[in-house]
Amino acid sequence: MKKLCNHAISGCAKKQIWARCWLLSFTLLVFNMLCNFSLFAQDGAAGINEATNKVKGYFDSGCNLMYAIGAVVGLIGAIKVFNKWNAGEPDTSKVAAAWFGSCIFLVVVATVLKSFFGI
Asked: Is this model's pTM higher than 0.70 or not?
């Protein structure tokens, strides 16, 4: 006697069904968490003002860090240019201009940012 209908599901189909169930469960879990977190939100303007105050607090330290990086880059550049000059390489002026320009750029950027933001 033959079976009229075969309701057996293959292993691959079972994996797909379980994957969809897990994905749906995870999506609902994340949605539920996001709905609960909305209760702790603050005013947008207050958050922006707080972020502005924190950035202003770190700005002087960041500018000092840029000056220090500029000094280190200047020392490394001076050593490289000195070595090229002693070796008699013809492109010493290009290398010196590049290193000097990078140091000046770091100092100018820090100064311009200070004046731009009024800090």
From this structure: no
